[in-house]
Specification:
It is built from five helices and ten strands; from the N terminus they run αβαβββββαβαββαβ. The protein has 235 residues and is an alpha+beta fold. β4 and β5 form a beta hairpin.
């Protein structure tokens, strides 16, 4: 959400919340992941009314623990904020530091839906391809230490090539991740598929689309991506 700076150059957190309420909340999402949703520099101060967004969407804010935020002034971890539907039973939550010229990170939520466990990792990766490869390798090592379950990766990968390049190589992550590439940047006339929804179950990510409305185009330099992920799909 570009720290609430719209394509008109105006910083307006209320406009971002309103765009979520009117153009995303009617889809009744199970999950909402925001990137660049805290200030860019330390102390990564809060920008949004997260309680208001939770009320507008019916989702639960996932950073109520201080360990899941960068610091006392932040709402998320290095700009990543996650919301999850209350019908899910949350099993475990974590954050992962990722290296880079600009400090990056990922937010991890493991939950259960109707007896099926799944993991969501929301992230904002580097603009520099070699660093993205390193960041994905770190996430692969993290996954190696966690229990086996279907894993969903989503966020701003900053990878413009639809095929994804080396960063999505299964040798880096210990498993293959796939999902459709939809153009999301720049919001005025999207050309590059920087934002993705991926999972390690073949064909489980479906009906992925870029959400294009006048209000969303104005609110940020990226357009949001929505899709359906089928759980408990075979590997």
């Amino acid at each position: 959400m570009h720290r609430a700076k719209g394509t008109d150059g105006r910083v307006d957190p209320a406009r971002v919340r309103e765009a979520i309420r009117t153009d995303l909340a009617p889809w009744t999402p199970d999950m909402l992941a925001l990137q660049e949703a805290d200030e860019e520099c330390r102390p990564h101060g809060r920008i949004l009314d997260v309680a208001g967004i939770a009320a507008d969407t019916g989702l639960e804010y996932q950073h109520d623990s201080a360990a899941l935020r960068w610091g006392p002034s932040s709402d998320g971890f290095l700009g990543t904020i996650m919301f999850l539907h209350p019908r899910f039973d949350v099993l475990y939550r974590d954050v992962v530091d990722l290296p880079g010229h600009c400090h990056r990170g990922a937010v991890v939520v493991e939950a259960e839906a109707d007896g099926t466990a799944f993991r969501v990792m929301s992230m904002h990766l580097s603009l520099f391809q070699p660093l993205r490869v390193v960041q994905m390798r770190i996430l692969g090592q993290y996954l190696y230490r966690r229990p086996e379950m279907q894993t969903i990766l989503l966020g701003d990968f900053n990878e413009w090539r639809p095929w994804g390049g080396l960063m999505f190589n299964s040798r880096l992550l210990g498993r293959g991740f796939r999902g459709p590439a939809r153009r999301s940047f720049p919001s005025g006339r999207p050309v590059l598929p920087l934002d993705r929804i991926l999972t390690d179950r073949a064909g489980a990510v479906r009906e992925v689309e870029t959400v294009r409305t006048p209000q969303l185009r104005l609110a940020s330099d990226h357009l949001p991506i929505r899709g359906i992920v089928h759980l408990d799909a075979p590997k």
